Amino acid sequence: NKTKIHLFQLIYYFNEPFDADEYIERLAWRTPGGGSKGGAEGFDPKKLLEEFENHIEELKQLDERIQRKVEKLEQQCHREAKEFAHKVQELQRSNQVAFQHFQELDDHISYVATKVCHLGDQLEGVNTPRQRAVEAQRLMTYFNEFLDGELRSDVFNNPEKIKEAADIIQKLHLIAQELPFDRFADVKAKIASKYHDLERQLIQEFTAAQRRGEIGRMREVAAVLLHFKGYAHCIDVYIKQCQEGAYMQKDVFEDTALLCQRVNKQVGEVFSSPETVMAKLIQNIFENKLQAHVKEKLDTRPTELEQYLTNLYDLYTRTTALAAKLTEFNLGSDKHTFLSKLIKSIFSTYLDSYIDMEQQYLQTRSASILQRYYDSKNHQKRPLGTGSIQELKERIRQRTNLPLGPSIDTHGETFLSQEVVVNLLQETRHAFQRCNKLSDPADLPKNAYSIFLLLVEHLCVDHIDYALEIGLSAIPSADAKNANLYFLDVVQQANTIFHLFDKQFNDHLMPLISSSPKLTECLQKKKEVIEQMEVKLDTGIDRFVRPLLNTNKTCNFLSDIASSKVCAYVSKQVERVRRSMDGKNVDTVLTELGVRFHRLVHEHLQQFSYNYMGGMLAICDVAEYRRCAKDFRVPLVLHLFDTLHALCNLLVVAPDNLKQVCSGEQLTNLDRNLLHAFVQLRADYRSARLGRHFS
Question: What gap in Å lies between CA 440 and CA 446, rounded to an integer?
Fold first, then answer.
């Protein structure tokens, strides 16, 4: 019993994840005297060994039992596998037999179907001639009535059988066309008369049903008329009647969209080919209603080109928008081409001459805007020189900065107007919009470029360039006593205007030419305009800086009051330059101004001889100028004044320390002649024999 209990415990334990260390620990713990401390009885290795040996024996017995059980299960598995394989073989044989039976049945069905088809063909071969003979006999009976001149059959006299009568007369009409005219002229005329009479009655019935809104009756009559020559006339009547009362509003485009939307639902219920009817309806509307509307607006051209171009743009835009809505309907396989042709048929005459009208309008309108502005300023625009003489003057002015011609008093007027610029840019923006819409895709880049050239002509040349020319002429000569800050105002406004011009170039012109060769031409033209303006701006700024400092040449710089006035004046000009310019232009102008300011102070200091007190005053003044130089925020200018301040120390330093000071950090890299020139300004230069320090 004890052995069985151990075996059950082992089986239970091995059902869990096996851990050898934990298993030994449990076994030792259960054995009396086998624990690590031996418990109350103390540790007894013999008992522990005996327990291990017994347990090993039990494990062997358990292994033998499990092995026997495994062998038994393997034998059972092999037996069941053989039985399953035998059953699969039997099922395969049964399936093969069933498949053979299915093939036999399929062959039998095919044989029967062939017999049935053959029998049907034979029956049809017998029945078709019989039906044709019956139909021929029936038509001959009706034909005889036309020969006799008396229509006795009820089908021709009963209005309710008009559908059947139409079918008969349509067939008789086809037969009559094959008969010789000399023998059957009379009967052919009677059949034709009846044919047209029934056709007329059917169209009248269709029209009446349409007015009553009887869709079912309209569908029946349309199906009968489908084989008549008057079917197209039926569609025309339907289209005409659809438009009655449809154009009650003033907006012909909105009315057309609503009409087509309403009719589209109806034609699918009435006609067998609704796409043909819808296409014919839209074609009728375009060729009549829309074309008449466009002619009314454009052929009676308003006196102003602006109104004509606005009307053309609005009409074309609304027509293309309407066409886009109409693509929702079934108009056949190539509806986009169909609608494009309809639009072209209306607007082709106007679009061919569009760009000429646009250029004429822009030329006139831009010139008018500029002239109105100059008139408001009571200014008579000066003609600018052209050709080789102007180019020669420009080259001389660029190299010498000499004023070629008398200076002009502008009374502070820059002759640049943001209102004018906004008007010109707005007119051009509208022109670009019209050009994008009204130009053929192949001509779009070329037309956009022509508009751009007009903008360059009137904005950049006639307005900005002209103002720069006036500004250059108004700058005083280099020896003028009073500096004029007028040109900075011109620079500031020209800079602002050109930013607006550049924005329109990127926003409105670039999308129209970005993928065409005209892009290169536009960029080159823009580059030329920029370079021409920059040359004049550079020339003007250079000529502006010269008299700016000449204003203070007569000032005694060696005075606290004078230095304060000079610094206040220069700081004011620096601030004015910062307000008038932006980007690298600010640093360029301030660098030039700072260098010339330094040169002026340096040359002024060279005009005097200094004792110790005079040298200290000079140092104080230069220190004031150095603080002013910080406002320039240009490292070069600050470095120049730092060096000048260090040179002024040579005027007061003890003679024995001159060599040490000249070797200082700020003066060591300077030319020895420059240092010597400053030392010569000392009052004690000859008495103290200071020249020996530079020998």
Answer: 10
Name the residue with tokens 């309407």. Answer: 322
Strand partners for 610: 682
**More confident of the two residues 473 and 460:** 460
Q: Would you state the pLDDT for residue 398?
A: 46
Is the pLDDT assigned to residue 399 strictly greater than 70?
no
pLDDT tier at 550, thresholds 50, 70, 90: low
Spatial separation of the C-alpha atoms in residues 455 and 188, rounded to whole Å: 76
What's the pTM value of the predicted model, to 2 decimals?
Answer: 0.61
Phi first, then psi, for residue 610 (nearest 5°) are: -125, 125
Residue 644, both tokens = 């000048």
Q: Where are the alpha helices (DSSP H) in 179-290?
A: 181-212, 215-225, 231-242, 252-270, 274-285
Count the Cβ atoms, other than its own, within 10 Å of residue 27: 15
What distance in Å separates the CA atoms of residue 142 and residue 216, rounded to the nearest whole number?
A: 30
Phi, psi of 332 (to 5 degrees): 110, -175
φ and ψ of 680, to 5 deg = -65, -20
Q: How far apart are CA 206 and CA 221, in angstroms?
A: 6
Residue 537, pLDDT score: 76
Backbone angles phi, psi at 437, to 5 degrees: -85, -40
Q: Retrieve residue 211's tokens.
A: 């007015």
Q: Could you report the per-residue pLDDT of 639-686, keeping only the tens digit for each?
A: 989 888 888 888 888 887 888 888 888 788 888 888 888 888 888 877
- Determine the Cα–Cα distance for residues 88 and 94; give it in Å rounded to an integer: 10
CA dist 264 → 151, 163, 218, 246, 273 (Å) = 42, 26, 15, 14, 12
Instruction: Give me the phi and psi of 229, to 5 degrees please.
Output: -65, -25
Query: For residues 642 and 626, is the Cβ–Cβ distance under 8 A?
Result: yes
Chain centroid to Cα 326, Å, comes to: 25
The three-state (H, E, C) secondary structure of 424-462, written as one string: HHHHHHHHHHHHHHHCCCCCHHHHHHHHHHHHHHHHHHH
SS3 689: coil
Q: Angle between the 291-298 and 335-352 helix axes, to the nearest 10 degrees?
A: 20
